[in-house]
Design goal:
By secondary structure, this protein is an alpha/beta fold. The protein has 7 helices and 5 strands; from the N terminus they run βαβααβαβαβαα. It binds flavin mononucleotide (FMN).
């Protein structure tokens, strides 16, 4: 049975555009593949920052670990196991300051691990997976628009996923959510409209 891992990074719950789009993606995926959907909600779970015990745990053999190292590295082990277990991944994230939220960066810091998800010779070790990244933003950053160059989130996510071996990445830009905040449209109407966005057009 194929598995889809959904990584959610918005703290806005039911008001989140990226969440609604990632959920819709997951529903469609389930309909098409009939597999399992696993949700890693970064906003409602505690994602610790990288710490000294974490670094010790990542760079020393397991038999030399202190209890603190074991505890710190377990989060990373769990996130990586979840990622490796999935056939496909969808990341729903807001754009924050033209980049990604700290929560998502923290998840990345846990899953990008030397000797586990990439080799010391910079080979990605996470093979055979496809990823879709949905980025909601207040402004518009579609290729060819005046502020497209400010968006560092798309390239960063493509680069870091590619670094660990996930090179089949589709980025969807759900730009212009400010119109919802300004009352020019509704969340439901905005989300419904995003079906017209071709998945491959926003990278
Ligand atoms: C801290 C913060 C930083 C933001 N930075 C940007 C930004 O750089 N560019 C932009 O277009 N929108 C920015 N926004 C707006 C969000 O990207 C927008 O509200 C988006 O819909 C959030 O995703 P969500 O609806 O999934 O929560 C920011 C919002 C917050 C709260």
């Amino acid at each position: 049975m194929p598995k889809l891992l959904v990584v959610e990074a918005s703290p806005r719950g039911e008001y989140s555009v990226s969440r609604q789009l990632a959920e819709r993606f997951a529903e469609e995926w389930r309909g098409n593949h009939g597999g399992d959907v696993i949700v890693r909600d970064l906003a409602t779970s505690h994602v610790p920052y990288i710490s000294l015990p974490w670094i010790g745990g990542a760079f020393t053999p397991a038999e030399q670990h202190s209890p603190e190292m074991d505890e710190a590295i377990k989060v990373s082990d769990d996130y990586i196991a979840e990622l490796l277990d999935a056939d496909e991944i969808v990341i729903g994230t807001p754009m924050y300051n033209f980049s990604i939220p700290a929560l998502l960066k923290s998840w990345i810091d846990h899953v990008v691990r030397a000797g586990v998800t990439f080799s010391m010779s910079y080979e990605g070790l996470v093979e055979g997976k496809k990823a879709t990244v949905i980025i909601a933003s207040g402004g518009n950053f579609a290729p060819g628009t005046p502020y497209a160059g400010l968006n560092v989130a798309s390239d960063y996510l493509k680069q870091i996923l590619g670094f660990i071996g996930i090179t089949d990445v589709t980025v969807v830009l759900a730009g212009g959510t400010l119109a919802i905040d300004q009352g020019q449209t509704t969340l439901d109407a905005f989300v419904a409209q995003q079906t017209d966005v071709p998945l491959a057009a926003a990278a």
